[in-house]
Every structure is written in structure tokens, then in C-alpha cells.
Amino acid sequence: MSDPSERSRIFVHGCGVVSPAGWGLESFRQALENGEPIPPTEVPRPGWAKPHRIRQAPTPETRPAFMSHPRLRRSSAISQFAVAAAIEALGKSAAQVGDGSMRLGIVVCEMTGCVIYSRRFYDETLRDASTASPLLFPETVFNAPASHIAALLGCTGLNYTLVGDPGTFLQGIALAAQWLSGNEVDGCLVLAAEEADWLTADGAYLFSHSAILGEGAACLYLRADLPEVKPVELKGITNAAAFHDAETRRQAAQIVRYESPMGGGNDLLCDGQQGVPRLDAAEEAAWATWPGKRVSPKLILGEGFMAATGWQCVAGVDALRRGVCEQAVISVVGHNQQAIGAHFMTGGA
Amino acid sequence: MLFPFSNPSQSRPRIVVTGAGIITALGNGWAQNASGFRAGKTGFKPVTLFDVSKQRAKEAALATVPAALPLTKLSKKDEKRLDRAGKFLICAGVEAVRQASWDPSEQTPIVLGTTSGGMTLGEAYYQQALGTPASQRGQPTRVNSYFSQAQAVLLGKACGMAGPITIIANACASGANAIGHGCSLIWSGRSERVLAGGYDGLSQLVFSGFDSLQALSTTRCRPFDAQRDGLALGEGAGVVCLETLERAQRRRANILGEIVGYGASTDVHHLTQPHPGGKAALQSMQAACDFAGVRPEQVGYINAHGTGTPLNDQAEAQAINEWAGDAVPHIAVSSTKGSIGHLLGGAGAVEIVICLMALKEGWLPPTAGTQQPDALCRFKLIRQPEDKKCDYALSNSFGFGGANGSVLLRRWA
User: In this complex, is the C-beta atom of B133 within 8 Å of any C-beta atom belonging to chain A?
Assistant: First the structure.
């Protein structure tokens, strides 16, 4: 596999997901099929009588075995979501990482990151800095989830945490493709993860009173070789069209539409609509003539920032695997950085 | 399209640095910093940005925010959105791009490293959200500007660059990883030029965090000293203009140095502590040198991660000793964190700029503050500034979460 030309194709070998619908792909799939928004939970907002509403990931029915790992026992929710999604996506291949027979790359993408412990730690600092907990602080860094995944799997190779607006997840996939085609890794996990807190809900509330945050993670396990069953191939990632205001955001969405496949009746668009017309308008206008089916995970699961882009990708890949569509197109019109798109197809030929 | 890759490189292009910007506690710009290091200056001051009365440590290497930012396409409104970290980034970025005489471009990628972006804005948001919960004045701007991508977008606007933005948050290795990743975009043929660097500003949360871990020195930061007792935080930014040698020569650019190797690894030993033997640090250094085909005895200088914590310096010293083997007594090593503190996400980038200075101008910066080197230091620990011409310099960055990066530079002759 050292010839770059042999590694120019990228396939999805596994998916993992944690969402307000539950832990694992099955609950995610069912939630999208049902089409009913997950009921939000009320989270008290200090200083306000009215609470924020958040679609939280439920407590898992059975405590995942990985939570007994010394690294994860006091980790924040975001790390636990990320690890769960990584393990599900990697499946049996995890053993190959542990025994050193596979070089695994890890790319974790976040927008708000480890906000719960950050808020708690800063709150402790303001109250009395001399007693702020040293157990919390290490879990506030953006790369804590990536570090925990590496430790759990015994993975000592390339490991990046990318931050940015939600389109960054697709850049993360492009980074993984670069590592794979350059033969720097044999496989690569690309993750998106977020945790929701009253503080992030507070920030979102400033921009829309009707947006409801969600939380969780999504993971794609990518390789350059063909999977044995149900191959799904990454066919393209558009350029990241940067924007800096509402008008250039609208233009960026159009650029992504222009660079994406035209689509047909059997194709699926996984978009980022969340039911807030002002925020959705740029994407809606760009994709108004899409001829195929559409799925909008955020309408069901909430505004999961980076995780939501991961959910869009997993929704597309899962639909391809189940033969629901021939091509899945992902559209992301981010918050304050970029619009970007991707498309996947059933592969193997 | 970001994928499939339209321009797979048949041979790896050489990468040169044609612009470098730096701002630290020693000053704003290449000249002030170079003269500061050559004079062995240090930049530590009492922290006055926030209350440290209940912290163990009271000092940090604070950089001075310029009274006015360089004149760019940023509006006054844009400038108002920048916190001190963002202002450091703009200063270093504009210095680098002007030095390189780069034309504006809508394609040039920007790759940055940071640990906390606009954290001070996040802190202000939180204080207002709790202190005056009914008031939302200024809060939307704080939310938008807190995110590091907002600062990167403004850097692009200031420098006339509007290409894809990648922000790496690999803790203290972020800056090294950002420049390393920028190089990989060029080596792989994805781009002819990349603006890359790292930045961070001092924030209360981060200062308190390191203090809570008892990682901050309560005396004086003394990297590799037998009596070292912790690190000192710093702040600032380092940005470099990376481009192919062919492109630089075509436009007759002034070349500051060459980047010839990059290695990265992950230390899975502990979230905040390195493997005691420096296993992953060794892996990172070896990867950078193997990539370039350079042997340890060819490397004249290492800018060590050298935080001054007992655990980091022990692990790194062991790694250097093992990596260099018999050549170790001849290898000059220093940690500039003794002068400018630990810049976290900016550290790797700033230290790469320092390596460029050292290679170009033929001097080595000292490990300020260190009195009695640890017995583990089998290498030549530089404690006073000295003149020395080296062909290769290696910059190490090892961070929280086990993120490691090493970048190898060659003197441009």
C-alpha cells in the first residue's frame, strides 16, 4: 500500500454515534426514521427564572466498559461521547491498534469543546482560586477527548484536534484522506464531539430564541482499502468557502452548491436545517432546487455544532449502506467561518 | 476541491520561510526579540490582568499589547473584536506577510495553533452572564469573537488571505503542529504557500489551571535546573510564511531559512504527565529527522520544550540523550521559556521563529534562570547567549494530552 495512486480512494469502514436519541447507530437511525424531534430537557440558567432547553444525550442503559478505564473515570461528557463513537466505528479493528499491527490516526473536531468542566473550573476560580480543582482543569483542554481515545486504544501516532465552526469536520475528513493517501496511517478515525451546557445554550440564545442545542458525537473510520461489505466511498469534499457576514455566508453556500453534485431523484441531501428560518435561509436558498430526498438531523436532534455535522455524515453513510440512496451529499453552512460540502457513494467498482 | 486531491506531488518540494513575525514579552517583532535573546533578557512581571492574590504563583511573561495595531484592512470595529490574544496574532501575522512581501490571495491556506483562542472574551461573557444576568450588552460580540476561527478570519482579512482555515488545538504542541501541518500541505502538493503559526494570550482560567496543578514556579522558571520547580506562563504569537523554494526563488524573495522535517507523536502515558523516559518525545524527534534524512550529529541546536517542570525536563532530557547517542555532548540545547515563559499554543510557533533567528544570525539563545543543570543534561545546556553557526536546529514541543511535535530547520546559506 505504499504507492500513493493505490491509496487515492478513501472508504468508510465504520460509523459510530452518540446523540440525544441514544448511544449507538441503531437509536440514531430510528430517531431519524421516526422524524420526531427528541424532547428537550430544561436546564436551569443561573439568574434567570426561565430555564434553557437542551436535547441532552441520555445516560446509557448499561455503563460502557470503557468508563472503567482510569483515564475516563473522571472525564467530561464530551470525552465519553467521543470514546463511545470511536469504539463503535472502529469495531473489531481496535485490536489491531492495540497489538501495533495498524497505524491509526485520530482527528477530533470540536467547536465549543470541553465547556462543562471549563465553566465549572472557571467558576471555582472566581469563587476562590486557591481551591479550584486540579482534577477539572486537565479535562478543559480541547484535546482531552483525543488524548483519551489514544490512551484507550494505545495509539501513539498522528493525533490532531481541530477547532472551528461546524464545517471543520469535513476538513477533518480531508486531513484524514491526506494522511491515508500519504501512507502516514493505515486507518483514521475522524470524530466530531460536543457537550451542551447552560452556558453554550445561553450563547446560542443570543442568536435565536428557538434554537435548541443537542450534544453527542459522531465518528467515521476511514481507510484506503475496500471494506469487505457495504462499501461506501468518499467521493469529494468541496473547498471551504469562507465568509464573514450574512451576504458572504449566502454566497459561500451557493459556492458549495455549485461544487457539489447536481443530484438525482435517488440521491440524499443531508443538510444542516434546524428550523430557524433566519439561520437556515442561506442553505435553504442554495439547495432549493435539490431534486432528491432530504434529511435534516438537527431538526430531530438539535443544534449539535460540530457533532451535528458528524450526524449529517453518519446519516448519509448509513443510508448508502442500507441502499436507501445512490449518493449522499452533505451540506454545511457554518456559523462564523465557512460553508463546505462532501459527498459519498456506494463504492467498490 | 479539498478532496480528491487535484495535484498529487510527484516529488516533495523544498519549503522555505520568507517571512516571520513574533511578539513575546521581549518585544514586538523580529528585531526586538532577537536583541532580547542575544542580551539574555527575561520578560517576567507581576500579573495584573486579573486577581492572582489567591494563586501560588504571581508572575508571568506578559507581552505588551501595542497601542495601535499595524495599519491593515481591518476596520475599527474588527479591531475592537480582538482580545489580547487576537491582537498578538495580528501583529505577528502582519509582520510575517509584510516581510515576505506576499500578494493577497483567496487560496492561501491559514493554519494556526492555539489552546484557548479568545478565552478572555469567554471569561468576560461568563462574568457578565452571572454578574448582571439581565444584561446582554456586548454578549453576542463576545460569543462570536471568542472562537479562534473568528480571530483567524480577521488575520486573513488583515493579511489579505482568504483561503481555508485550519486551527489545531493540540495543547502546548499546537503551534509546532500548525507549522508542521502547513509544511505537509506544501510537501504533499496541496498548496504552494501557507501562512502558519500559533498564538495565545494569558487568561485567568489557564493561569489558575496551571497553578491548581502546582505546575507554576513559585520562585523562578529554571528549565533543566537541578532545583527547578515549575514553569512560568507567557503569551504572544509567532507566524511564518511558508512557500516552496521554487516559488520563493521565482519571485526573488528573501529567504530566512528552510524547514526540512516534521514529526508528531502521541504520548499515552498520562493526560498531563509525559512518559518518564521520554518515549513519545523521542519518537517525535526521530520522525522529524528521519523525514529529512538528518542524523543527530548534524543538528547543532535544539530549542527544547523545556518547561521547567520536574517531569517534563526529565523526560525530554532522557529523550535527547537517547536520540543523540554518542553525539549528545556536542549538541547545544536551550529552553527559551526561561526568558519568555510558556506560550502554550503559541510556544511551538514562537520557538520555530527563534530557531530561524538563531540559524540566520549565528547565535544561540540562553536558558535564562538556570544555575545548576540537572545531572540528566548530558548535552551542552546553553546558559548564556553565545555566537554559533549551526546548519540545523530542532524545535521540540510536547503538550498536555501527549501531543508532541518536532520541527527541523536548516540554515539558508
Answer: yes
Q: Does B95 score more than 60 pLDDT? A: yes
Of all residues in chain A, what percent carry a pLDDT higher than 70? Answer: 97
Are residues B188 and A133, on separate chains, in Cβ contact within 8 Å?
Answer: no
- Put simply, whether B298 touches A (Cβ < 8 Å) is no
User: Residue A316: in which H helix or E strand, if any?
Assistant: helix A306-321
**Contact assessment for residue B288 and residue B394, using Cβ atoms and an 8 Å cutoff:** yes
CA distance A1 to chain B (A): 16
Angle, CA A86 vertex, CA A84 and CA A90 arms, to 5°: 120
Spatial distance between the Cα atoms of A253 and A243, rounded to a whole number of angstroms: 9
Q: Cβ–Cβ of A143/B403 closer than 8 Å? A: yes
Q: Cβ–Cβ of A338/B164 closer than 8 Å?
A: yes
DSSP letters spanning B216-228: B-SS---TTBTT-
- CB distance B2–A171 less than 8 Å? yes
Model pLDDT, residue A1: 35
Residues 182-211 of B with CB under 8 A from A: 184, 188, 190, 204-205, 208-211
Among the partner-chain residues A137, A141, A236, the one whose CB lies closest to the CB of B4 is A236
3-state secondary structure of B283: helix
Coil vs helix vs strand at B186:
helix
Is B3 in Cβ contact with A237 (below 8 Å)? Answer: yes
Q: Which residues contact B402 (CB under 8 A, 6 or more apart)?
A: A147, A150, A151, A159, B266, B267, B268, B269, B270, B271, B274, B280
Report the candidate in B332, B366, B301 with the shortest Cα–Cα distance to residue B41.
B366
Q: Is A237 on the interface with B (CB under 8 A)?
A: yes
Per-residue model confidence as pLDDT tens digits over B346-369: 999 999 999 999 999 999 999 999
**Beta-strand (E) ranges in B286-372?**
299-303, 332-334, 363-364
> Is B305 designated active site?
yes
For A67, other C-beta atoms within 10 Å of its C-beta total 14
Say if pTM beats, i.e. exceeds, 0.90: yes
Active site residue B172: yes
Measured in residues, chain B has a length of 413
Produce one character per residue of B362-397: b if its CB has 16 or more CB atoms within 10 Å, e if not: ebbbbbbbbeebbebbbbbbbbebbeeebebbbbbb
